[in-house]
Amino acid sequence: MSAFLVLQRIQLDDLMQVCSSPDCIETSGAMMSQMDLSVDPCSDFYEYSCARGLQDPSFIPPDKSKWGLFSKLDKRNKAVIKKLMDETNGTYEGVNSSAVYKSKVYYDTCMNATIRENLGIDPMLQVIDNVGSWPLTDQHWNANDWDVEENLAMAYGYGVSPFFSIFVSTDDKNSNKQMICFDQGGTTFSDYNRYSGNESEKFHAAFVKYFRSVSQLLGAEESESAQAAEEVWQFETKISAIQTKPENRTDPWELYHLMTIGQLKQDFSGWLNLSRFVEVLFEEAIPDGEKVIVYAPDFLSNLTSIVNSVEKSVLANYLTWHMVLSLVPLMPLSFRLAMLDFEYAQSGVQSSPALWEECIERTTGTIGFAVGALFVKKSFSEDSKQNVQKILDGIRNAFEESLPETSWMDVNTRERALDKAKAIIDKIGYPDFIKQPAELDAYYEKLKFEGTSEFNNSLAARIFYVKKNLLKLKNETDRTEWAMSPEMVNAYYSPAMNEIVFPAGILQKPFYDANYPKSLVYGAIGMVMGHELTHGFDNSGRKYDKHGNLHDWWTNSSVTAFDKRTQCLVEEYSAFKVQSENLNGLTTLGENIADNGGIKSALKAYKTWKDESGVRDIKLPGLNMTSEQLFFLSFSQVWCSYYTPQYALQSLVTDPHSYAKFRVIGVLKNMPEFASAFQCAKGTPMNSGERCSVW
Question: Which residues form the Peptidase M13 N-terminal domain (predicted)?
């Protein structure tokens, strides 16, 4: 009977029309160029989908540590933006726009390498002086004159976070309110293994070399810079040792600690007058009774003994190093060559990107909504937005319709989950204000650029954004705000806002195109949509209610059942290996839940579209595949990725997502629909019979 059903399905799919348009031919060729048809899809679907492309030595550009579909689209979007930047005269929607003009100013100053070289080290020395001077470059530096509160506040005002991080953000337990938040931070390497792991000596040497190179370029004596580099390395090693490890930072309940400034002051006793530091940073007194959120109280209390154990000169060298480190990309070529050497040790990057690509990256990072406005006008039509909305509506419906089938949840929790799902806000393409030149200009009104120096323009932008963040303390949460600008190739779910956001940058080929077979669209952007939606119900997101508040709305029985099912995923992904190193199934759990749930919603929505539209999907020429096979191939090729060996290992610790190959293998092994589509016999690697399922 089952063989007949498979045959019947294939016969129905054989009735699909083969698309012969140039777009379809190009798409089919691109997909086939990645595939290795000598691999059995039931043995390793990732290799089947991706291996041929990954074998090409030119597959990854030398300036990238990871290269795949996201990277390719990002570079293509950058090329579009470059043309827009080259052509714009500062007008937008038929009027002069100060915001668009500022984006042009920033881009042009970034592209002017001659001015960067001519300015030399003077701009950096001025910043160093602003944060209290550097013992290595100032022979008159005096510990008694070094004001830790003033200098630390100045560094934070420039967007740099030595020692710890402080920012204003949404209160996890009251999403309408903004609060001051404190968290851990303070190391050059985000991966704690760099300080104490098996290869720590390699990274120790790279750190010291980089520190010495940069400090000597700024005028430090060789012997003094060598000693300071060692002292700062040892200081950061101690800080790294007290940081809470990623696997212990997955539960928002355990991270949330409500305190007052007065209570927190005790943790800084002996080295920092917290009240004065906060007053300098916020430019007004913050009362001791002000409540703040502390995400790493143990770190902050342990930090004091480390700080008090060293001389002020070490603190000054450490603070200034972090300030300098953040500005090296804006410096002359000699500095950036030293940075490249350091990056190679970390991630295997062998060269810098082309200057235009760096400048587009920095321009969008600096004034992204202005750049995004031009990108949207060029590359994302209103028709596209409406079509994407229909796809997203189908994904949402599929998820909501699947909830009653979630038998492991009790009725009350299931009903609340459905309420939350229905309350999720979706944002597509861009925030509305960028379509109005006056509103766009008002957003950047206080951002002032001067016409010649990218270095100074970057500092102005840093100050602008820090002040913009700190001013949120006086206001209620702005639920119209976007955390990403429109040109970005990314998407996100915000638990505090209970919203899913899809910038125009990712709503492009090959994730989405109106003329694509719907199997490809649902397998790519549909999967991304389902992924972000499922984040609202992952191991962290599920703890926030429909209003975005951290709230215990699950019954104990449903929590127990959820934990049992997610433990299955933890064990599954922890068994995967990269270069003999196991993945961390706990730190990647949230993303793995979203991956596994997202593709199910996408597939269900695709099947519903086929049933309800009455339209037969189209085939691609040269790919003799059914519609569901194309769906799974489209999904898999989203993750075809090349890593440098260095970055492959780094990602196991620093990336909350699983290694790309296992985002495919781990998900599809858990789907009987995949095994059915490719007729994988039970017991084959892709149909082992052992499956994990949450949503």
Answer: 41-431
